[in-house]
Design brief:
The structure holds 2 protein chains of 2 kinds. By secondary structure, chain A is of the alpha/beta class. Chain A contains 15 helices and 19 strands. Chain A has 2 domains: 275 residues, Alpha-Beta Horseshoe (pyruvate-formate lyase- activating enzyme), CATH 3.80.30.20; 56 residues, no CATH class. In chain A, β18 and β19 form a beta hairpin. In chain A, α6 runs parallel beside α8. The longest helix of chain A has 15 residues. The two termini of chain A are 30 Å apart. In chain B, the strands form 7 sheets. Chain B has an 8-stranded antiparallel beta sheet, with no helix packed on it. In chain B, strands 2-3-1-4-5-6 form a 6-stranded mixed beta sheet, sandwiched between helices. In chain B, strands 22, 23, 24, 25, 26 and 27 form a 6-stranded antiparallel beta sheet that branches. The longest helix of chain B is centred in the last third of the chain and has 18 residues. The chains are: A alpha/beta, B alpha+beta. Chains A and B meet through β10, α8, α9, β14 and α11 of A and α12 of B.
Chain lengths: 399, 599
């Protein structure tokens, strides 16, 4: 095993490095920063998030800064910055100001950089909106999820539906790129309620909508409730119809679906996420954050205290690390690329992975094309409308 | 030993009529075993048989007995009670001059009582009717005595009564054996002629041959010759079971015993062969037996295909002690590599299956039982078919022939209507009705064996609330209007799902089969058509609708590895299923054809 202390100061193990297409070795052009604090942990959430540990926020922000310092030089040039959580705007205005300052220190922030911060409707104030804008943040992703009180309650979201409109009014003054997150397929939700939620969202004129079918993530309280029969998932047919409605409704009037769950208006696609689906490198900082650099995907520790202790003592907070051999990486690229409406470009795929997609998955692709689930025009392969509904089954044949 | 001092007899009975317990009592009364050694069912030495109350392999026990100051040797030759083992019954009977016809006085005459009694009559044996279990409160001695008298023509005072449990009546039975059963004919000084009526393999001594001497004398270190096979051996040990193996060095005409030679494999010994002395061979062999032919076939596959070799070894081991069981390698698209096995009947099949799992510790999948069909081709060639996937192109077939069974039911008179309907539904031809007594009836039908083996026995039990019994024998082959019922999955024919069916029922069966398969095959990403076809014509169709939604909404930076691993796991899972074209068919779907007629 060869070990060396690299420029970042972290000890890294390179024994399992394998040669790969140059693409994976490129310097990351995207950065993800995870702020885990929340007012409350929702039943369906399986992100690294903590509630009731507000007194650790400042200590965490110091550790975060130290973790960035171990890998970055000030003014690092990236194309996108994404601050997720948790609830990144849950922290105080002062704390928000503090970490955004540090991000401006480590990254070169300019109007050309897509700089997103996730937010909750009831954590936004005029003051915080100003802080965000003043630090070059130019995109806010707002977790609305639903506009029905009984469905919000089912999701354990504690905001009032009207707060979404208020938050958007506040944001509108400084931002022209606002995204709304929605969830459908909530137990007890009707088709009509979903359609109305979608219309309400559209009436708020966001530039981007991420709409997710509710997922019962293993280990979450919601997953346990389902296992115990306390919560009954909605009928597969209704959920499918909801998804079909979403796709049909958001492919009109300037809206465009560009990924399984993502829709943009006026070309405001989320560039940050496009880096993920291109399987391109990205930085990741904070608890539970994933990073992909030098063909190695790493995952940080999730527990807040352990993360801070590790970083404070100069150790790496990474708990998982993976380097894939060339073909597996190419297959991973294929399943990520396919999530996009644009699908897999044959030329691009061979350039970035060194493999021909038809060598890897020629047979399943032909079969799915035959069944009308994939569309292949010779240059690109992408999901059909029916294919989006059955994406997992298709991807499982290609991976 | 003079032949006048010898009596050779069997006990014949329906299952559970107390044969083994009575045999034990006879051993106890005659001092062949002590009270301490007395344990129930000495004669059954396989666990499984004792559990089921069925003696599978015949065993012969020599008993010394003194009556009125005269010394006698009684040879009790045990017989299996079940219909599947008729063949073994008849070969045991060939070694006897008499038989105890045992009837449970709580149950009366049953199907196998009649079947076995006919075998004894054919063998010209002297029968002594005995009503058993007279100590039981449910015993109906008088009614059953009348039934036995009506059915077999005994006078009522010829019929003895006994209790195997308490030993009551055993003395009278022993007296009747001496007084009524003729002593064996034969000349101890004649040329040796001994009938091999059974054999088994002993782990340490090799093959042990059971024989009955008709003429002459056999001794240790004799050079013997098998008249039919022509093989020569030297006898290493001559002895009798008393009831454990005891060497005695010499046996002569009329006696029953065993011999050990240097014979390693069971297949080197032909049951029914005649043993003679190599130095002075007899010219005429004794009338032998017909080889038992497997009547019922089924596929046996290892649950895990990696276990194939273990299964092969296990089958080989079982076949060492059961020459009526056959197996040959087979492969099936759905179940992989396994064996096509032949059995004497359904019970035989069930017992082999259980012994494989229990004694040999192999997990197996058993396919639906099938019979052996004959197909006469256009070119006049006749081929036999024991598995649907071996049916030739229908255009080359002139006609089919299938095995026919004569089935005798003994049933309460009140259920006669239901049983007749069952038989008609199963393509039965009515032969006759006989009245055993005012409330019990014998009903005789001829029916294709394929119909008998499906579930007639289970149906009979439910129609008669457990009181009905049945017995069948194969009476030959008859032309039948049969077709191969094919199953197409997503347009492709899947041979492993095909069956052979009578044309008149084929459409209904096809409909039921595809309906059942629809439940067993999970939804795919596209609609899957299931069709049943007869000679290219679709007779039934079902469609498994496509999955509606199967998509994980989120996949961002932190989810990529986990998501990929989940999908890889799914991919692995699919690899373990049998893939037909683009359709995955789970193993249990191949067993759906087993029970397609059950509603």
């Amino acid at each position: 095993m060869t070990q060396r202390s690299d420029a970042t100061g972290f000890v890294t193990d390179e024994s399992d490095s394998v040669p790969s297409a140059p693409f994976f070795w490129a310097r990351p052009r995207a950065a993800y920063i995870h702020i885990p604090f929340c007012a409350h942990k929702c039943g369906y959430c399986d992100f690294a998030s903590v509630a009731g540990q507000d007194d650790a926020i400042d200590r965490f922000l110091s550790a975060l800064d130290r973790e960035m310092a171990s890998q970055l030089t000030p003014g690092t040039v990236v194309d996108t910055i994404f601050v997720g959580g948790g609830t990144p705007t849950y922290v105080s205005a002062k704390q928000l100001d503090r970490y955004l300052d540090r991000l401006n220190h480590w990254f070169q922030v300019s109007p050309d950089v897509e700089f997103t911060v996730e937010s909750n409707p009831n954590t936004l104030t005029a003051e915080k909106v100003a802080i965000l804008a003043n630090h070059g943040v130019n995109r806010v992703s707002l977790g609305a999820q639903s506009f029905r009180p009984h469905l919000l309650k089912q999701l354990e979201r504690n905001h009032d539906p009207a707060s979404v409109g208020r938050a958007i009014d506040l944001l509108r003054k400084r931002f022209d790129n606002i995204s709304i997150d929605l969830i459908f397929g909530i137990p007890g939700q009707t088709q009509k309620e979903w359609e109305e939620d979608l219309e309400t969202s559209l009436s708020l004129e966001p530039n981007h909508i991420s709409a997710y079918g509710l997922t019962y993530e293993k280990g979450t309280p919601l997953w346990k409730q389902r296992k115990l029969g306390i919560v009954e998932p909605i009928d597969e047919n209704i959920e499918a119809t909801m998804y079909e409605h979403l796709m049909d409704r958001l492919n009109l009037n300037g809206w465009e679906q560009y990924e399984i769950s993502n829709f943009a208006r006026g070309r405001k696609k989320c560039r940050h996420n496009l880096y993920y689906w291109a399987n391109a490198p990205y930085y990741g900082f904070g608890t539970g954050a994933a990073a992909f650099q030098n063909n190695r995907r790493t995952l940080n520790l999730r527990p807040l205290i352990t993360y801070m202790e590790r970083v404070e003592s100069g150790e790496s907070p990474i708990c998982q690390s993976e380097v894939l051999e060339s073909e597996s990486r190419a297959r991973e690229t294929a399943i990520l690329n396919l999530r996009r409406t644009e699908g897999i470009s044959r030329v691009n795929f061979i350039e970035t992975t060194g493999h021909r997609i038809d060598d890897l998955a020629g047979d399943p692709i032909r079969q799915f094309v035959e069944h009308g689930l994939l569309i292949d025009d010779g240059e690109t392969i992408c999901f059909s409308r029916a294919g989006f509904l059955l994406a997992d089954g298709i991807l499982a044949r290609i991976v | 030993m003079r032949t006048e001092q010898i009596r050779n007899f069997s006990i014949i009975a329906h299952i559970d009529h107390g044969k083994s317990t009575l045999a034990d009592q006879i051993l106890l009364k005659t001092g062949a075993i002590t009270q301490r050694e007395f344990r129930s069912q000495v004669l059954d030495d396989m666990d499984l048989e004792r559990e089921r109350g069925i003696t599978i392999k015949a065993r012969a026990v020599a008993i010394s007995f003194n009556l009125d100051g005269n010394e006698y040797e009684l040879n009790l030759i045990d017989t299996p009670g079940h219909v599947d083992f008729n063949y073994e019954v008849s070969r045991s009977l060939a070694a006897c001059e008499g038989a105890l016809l045992l009837v449970d006085s709580t149950q009366g005459v049953q199907a196998q009582t009649v079947a076995n009694a006919y075998l004894a009559m054919e063998g010209d044996l002297t029968m002594i009717p005995v009503l058993n279990k007279i100590d039981m409160p449910a015993s109906r001695v008088e009614t059953v005595r009348e039934e036995v008298s009506n059915t077999f023509g005994f006078t009522e005072d010829e019929i003895l009564s006994a209790s195997g449990k308490t030993g009551d009546g055993v003395d009278q039975i022993l007296r009747a054996i001496i007084e009524k059963i003729p002593s064996p004919p034969g000349n101890p000084d004649g040329q040796l002629r001994a009938l091999i009526f059974d054999s088994h393999v002993d782990e340490y001594r090799g093959v042990i041959i059971y024989f009955r001497i008709f003429d002459g004398t056999i001794r240790n270190n004799d050079r013997i010759k098998m008249l039919r096979s022509g093989r020569m051996y030297e006898t290493l040990e001559i002895g009798q079971f008393r009831p454990t193996r005891k060497s005695c060095g010499e046996l002569s005409a009329g006696q029953v015993g065993y011999l050990i030679s240097n014979i390693k494999e069971l297949k080197d010994v032909h049951i029914g062969d005649t043993i003679t002395l190599a130095a002075d061979p007899a010219q005429e062999p004794l009338p032998g037996y017909k080889e038992p032919k497997p009547m019922v076939y089924c596929g046996i596959f290892p649950t895990d295909n990696a276990e194939f070799e273990n299964l092969r070894q296990a089958l080989e081991k079982l076949s060492l002690n059961d020459s009526s069981f056959t197996y040959e390698p087979d492969s099936n698209e759905g179940l992989g590599f396994g064996f096509l096995c032949g059995f004497l009947g359904l019970l035989h099949m069930e017992i082999i299956g259980q012994r494989l799992e229990r004694e040999q510790d192999v997990d197996i999948v058993q396919t639906a039982p099938s019979v052996k069909y004959e197909v006469v081709l256009q070119n006049r060639e006749t081929i036999t078919i024991n598995s649907p996937d071996k049916v030739p192109d229908p255009s080359t077939i002139d006609f089919w022939r299938e095995p026919i069974a004569k089935v005798s039911f003994i049933i309460p008179t009140e259920s006669i209507g239901g049983v007749m309907k069952l038989c008609q539904d199963r393509r039965g031809t009515y032969i006759r009705t006989e009245y055993l007594s005012k409330d019990r009836t014998i009903l005789v039908y001829e029916m294709p064996l394929a119909e008998v083996i499906i579930d007639v026995y289970d149906k009979l039990k439910s129609l008669t609330r457990g009181y009905g019994t049945m017995d069948f024998e194969i009476i030959g082959y008859r032309e039948g209007d049969l077709v191969k019922l094919d199953v197409l999955v997503a347009g492709d024919k899947v041979d492993a799902l095909s069956t052979i069916a009578p044309r008149e029922f084929a459409m209904t069966r096809g409909r039921k089969l595809v309906a059942k398969l629809k439940k067993e095959i999970s939804r795919h990403m596209f609609p899957v058509a299931l069709q049943a076809a007869i000679g290219g014509k679709i007779v039934a169709r079902e469609t498994i609708p496509a999955m509606r939604k199967n998509v994980t909404a989120k996949c961002y930076g932190g989810d990529i590895t986990r998501k990929r691993k989940l999908l890889e796991k799914q991919k692995e899972g699919k690899k373990r299923m049998k893939q037909f074209g683009q359709v995955e068919i789970p193993q249990k779907a191949f067993l759906a054809i087993l029970s397609v007629d059950e509603e």
